[in-house]
Amino acid sequence: MRFTCTNGLFALFLTALTWPMVSQATHLRAGEITTRRLSATSLTYEITFTGYYDETPGGGRAAADQQTSVWFCFGDDTSVEVQRLSRTFINNRTSSINVYRVVHTYPGPGPYTIGVTIPNRNNDTKNLPPPDRSDEIRFYVSTTILINAALQVNSTPVMLNPPLDSGRVGQRFCHNPAAFDADGDSLAFRLSVPKEGREDRCPRSRDIPAYQDPTRFSRTSETGGSPTFTIDPRTGELCWDAPGEEGQFNFAFIVEEWRNGVLIGEITRDMQIIVVDQTNRRPLLQPLPELCREAGSLISVPVSAADPDNNRVIISGFGGVFNVGPDGRPLAAGELIAPDYARLSSNGLPQNQPATSTFTWQTNCNHIRSAPYDVTFKVGDVPTSRSATSLVAFQTLRIRIVGPSVKNLTARPTATTQGRAIQLSWSPYACAPTGAEGQPTRLLVYRREGCTPVTSETCTTGPPPGYSQIAELPVTATTFTDTASLRRGIAYSYVLVARYPDRNGGFNGGMSLPSAPVCQQLPLLMPVITQVTIDSTDAQRGQITLRWSRPIGLAPGDLTGPFQYRIQRATGLDGTAFQPLTTITTTLEPTTVDTVFVDRGSSTSALNTTANAYRYRIEFFYTTNGQFTRLDVTEAASSVRLSSGPGPQRSIALRWQTNTPWSNDNQPHRIFRSRSGPNGPFNEIAQVNVQAPPSYVFTDDGSDRITADGNTSRPLSADSAYCYRVLTRGRYTDAQLTGLGSLTNLSQTLCAQPADTTRPCPPALRLDSLNCASVQAEQFCTQTNFQNQLRWSATSGPTCDSQVVGYRIYYGRYEQDSLRLLTEVATPTTSYAHQNLTTVSGCYYVTALSRRGQESRPSNRVCNNACAVFALPNVFTPNGDGKNDVFSALRCPAFVEEVRLVVYNRWGAKVYEGTSRELSWDGRSSEGRELPTGLYYYEVQVRFSYVDRNAPPNVYKGWVQILREGNTQG
């Protein structure tokens, strides 16, 4: 008979022999709400409340007898009274597991919080104030679900380990709820605060006031440190290190359900433990490793426990892999996982020391999922004294079940006359779970160039790095022929991966482990191009030499001759418009010279190696029935294309490109330079060990690093042209072609001139500025515009260009401005008068220009500032005689932009306020009334056209006498 892990129930019954008795117990110890969506096409849910009741005689049992129903509040403004479905007695009938279940249909998508309130909790819970009246606190738990079409048939996690453990004073206590999510969603755990319902039906709820954290009842941890109360956010193991006094305690935690990074629900478990003060010590389980296994493998793990008091122990297992509920009874087939189910050999029976139970699980393809399986093992001791309480400890075994790899993958080239193809074969793949809406498992084919071994991490699914998908096949396929863009002389590596369909809203899909890679290359029945080198650079009469090898893998008798090479050419590094050049017929006899062709162009097709790169390929033909039949075409290979650009400090930057079936990487490329023109002589000046494009670069500063053919080192002149050629080196990476050795190719000849980036030295600038101390107002009485006089002198230095041909003057009205180009003057001018200014305020700098257009850095920056010239009289006579009729500045003020005047009478009352471009007050009030003769006080704020944009106004304060005929009142 197959064991289905009823050991948990047996252990609960046995533990009851020593479950501590609490006097005056009343009712509910713990509980939680779980849900299950019944159909992907409706919003109907099965909702279950599981309550753990106090069944002690004379106390909680009577209340539990009466709790035949509870009210469910569904979070959509509806509620229903639900009858008790089952009542299972445990712990020697001092506790019971009570199940209430209802089916409810929601009106639409969205979040809903389901709540249940039960009057009341049991009594004497120490951390729920007041502890002697905790039976007056309503028990309340809730679960929040997110209804979304994408979630399909989703279930909340279930907690398979009942919250009925005991702890001992001074010893670390731990509890693991054995939470399991049948859909494979990720679970996260966090602590919460027990809640109470504010009403008996569809209640409002709140955190229990003055709830006390368990550490308030602790003195030290088990090892003497500070006490802690924590929950592992990954495994859900809740630990109190360590209880400090005996008694009954309640606390709560929340299980969050996540899918694809989105929180889709959370469950609150409110639980209770009883702490005793005795000499019994808790047993211990040996740590368990994390496992990763292919679906279909048999998992067998020994679970060992020991008790420091040498008591017998009971090892129990909890988790969805057993398909057993929290009451220890088997669930409906496949309710949590598909069969086969896991087993635990001890069957929950007491064992003597040393104690070991064997966990076994025959996995299958229906167990594949992205999230790991957590299996919780619990060990409880069986004290010899009936008055002693059994203590427990936990360990979690985390198992990840991944899809098995495709087995026995092989590769072989197809028949030689069928073109370029590699055929893959493998054993039938038996692991093919079907997803939601019938989506099938698919096989994906991946390929990469080269046969470098790939080391995959254990349990790493999907293709290894560097592979690209080339095909998607039915899971029933066992062969595939690759004909996509294969190249001769290149080795190809292949892996296969199974992709599983989404089964629950997109979480349980994913990929299998990759197959073992297999490597293959096409047989070398074709010629292989080995050289495309430029012999002559000319716009009309260029010349390129093309070389190739004979078909390396062609054995006598493979194909019949005669044979033909048909040579084609296209313009450009990436040219594809190939045109025929010539045909060479051969018998492939060793004495026949047939592997070289010199391309000189033709009268109708000039070879312009000055302007263009050229690309070549060769078609290979054999004879069948007296006719030439095309076998294949070589990989195309281009000539080397050299280009140049300006480098720093009178240097020339060279860059070259190729497009060849061989690799030019990690090879020394040789640089040649001629100082005498394109016809040479050329001297080798450097060797560059290039890595990979676009690093085919070299900057010539005039040095000669290769002196065997003479030292030509000296600085490059901006007035001279220099000519270059580059010789590249390359090799085929295919092991079959390594015998071809190093492949060398010359670029075209390229002549270039270094750009002169040497700049002149910045000039030294000075400005004829005003001496405000000596300025008199009369200087500006007749002046309507102004000028600033600039003067500068050239400077020199060892790194500066002395050939200065002009200067640029930059100006900004304010010192905060970015200066803009004002004008440009040619040498020998070294001064400039900036005229027609409304103010002298402004800033300047000057730059020098070289003959080659290089501009120096800015000179020193100089600024001029306006002078504040403003004086006021102390009497005026507004009598209309045209003399001294207004209060205004003496003579003519300079550089004034705005004046604000405020006038007060001798009693301090403001009689006038006004703003103007120039001060001119006629002795009237702000309302236009003539002010009488008398003494008045003023404040004048004058804003001058300073160089500082944010300069504050100048303030002038004083008094002025108004004199009017026949009026002496002020």
From TrEMBL:
<feature type="compositionally biased region" description="Basic and acidic residues">
    <location>
        <begin position="198"/>
        <end position="207"/>
    </location>
</feature>
<dbReference type="Pfam" id="PF13585">
    <property type="entry name" value="CHU_C"/>
</dbReference>
<protein>
    <recommendedName>
        <fullName>Gliding motility-associated C-terminal domain-containing protein</fullName>
    </recommendedName>
</protein>
<feature type="signal peptide">
    <location>
        <begin position="1"/>
        <end position="25"/>
    </location>
</feature>
<feature type="compositionally biased region" description="Polar residues">
    <location>
        <begin position="215"/>
        <end position="229"/>
    </location>
</feature>
<feature type="region of interest" description="Disordered">
    <location>
        <begin position="198"/>
        <end position="233"/>
    </location>
</feature>
<keyword id="KW-0732">Signal</keyword>
<dbReference type="InterPro" id="IPR013783">
    <property type="entry name" value="Ig-like_fold"/>
</dbReference>
<dbReference type="InterPro" id="IPR026341">
    <property type="entry name" value="T9SS_type_B"/>
</dbReference>
